[in-house]
Every structure is written in C-alpha cells, then in structure tokens.
C-alpha cells in the first residue's frame, strides 16, 4: 500500500452575507431546540427533569450568546427574517 499525495483544495472564506445567514439560521435552530427542551420538560419525570433543566439552561445560554453576536453585527431576527430564511432553506432542500 503506497501513500499517495492528495492535492489539498484551498478553503474558501465565507462572505459576510453567508456568515449572516449562518448566524440567523443558528439562532432559529437554537430557538427551536429551546422550545423542544421546554416541551420535553413538561412531560419529563424522575431523573429526566434534571436532564431537561440543564438542556434548557444550555440552549438558553447558546441563544443569548448568538443574539448578542447578531446585535453587535446590527442584525435582527424578527418574524419576517424567520419566515424568509425558513422558506429559503426549504428551497435549497428542494433543489
């Protein structure tokens, strides 16, 4: 077995717009994760109560952090952006 040289491809830097879209998608995902954790907490019993409590705290901390970054970049995540990026994401999956 020989070691063959594999040419590495240069990693392309993301544009500011791509970074903004990724950040907004991350915020939307973090909100969804928080909603799911809250819903699961409502039905949890026994040891799972502690698990979902920590999951809620972790998701809330992540969401707070992402929103702080978005605000520092002058971005807002409102219902219009939420819907626009959800529709945009669905269009990407359809292709």
Description:
The protein is mainly α and about 100 residues long. The protein has one domain (about 15-95). The protein contains 3 helices and no strands. The chain has helices spanning about 15-45, 50-70, 80-95. Helix 1 crosses helix 3. It is extended.
Give the overall silhouette: extended
State the helical fraction: over 70%
The number of distinct structural domains comes to 1
Bin the strand percentage: under 5%
| Number of helical elements | 3
Give the helices and strands as they follow along the chain: HHH
Distance from N terminus to C terminus (CA atoms, Å) equals 40 Å
Mean pLDDT: 83
* Low-pLDDT runs: none
Largest sheet: none
Structural class: mainly alpha
Any idea what the radius of gyration is?
Answer: 19 Å
Number of strands: 0
Topology:
Layout lengths: L15 H28 L4 H25 L6 H16 L1
Task: For the structure shown, list the relevant keywords.
mainly alpha, 0% strand, 95 residues
Q: Brief description of this entry?
A:
The protein has 95 residues and is mostly helical.
């Amino acid at each position: 077995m020989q070691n063959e040289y594999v040419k590495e491809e240069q990693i392309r830097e993301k544009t500011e717009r791509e970074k903004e879209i990724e950040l907004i998608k991350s915020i939307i995902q973090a909100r969804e994760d928080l909603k799911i954790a809250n819903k699961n907490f409502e039905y949890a019993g026994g040891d799972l109560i502690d698990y979902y409590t920590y999951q809620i705290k972790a998701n809330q901390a992540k969401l707070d952090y992402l929103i702080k970054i978005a605000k520092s970049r002058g971005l807002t995540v409102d219902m219009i952006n939420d819907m626009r990026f959800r529709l945009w994401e669905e269009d990407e999956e359809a292709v």
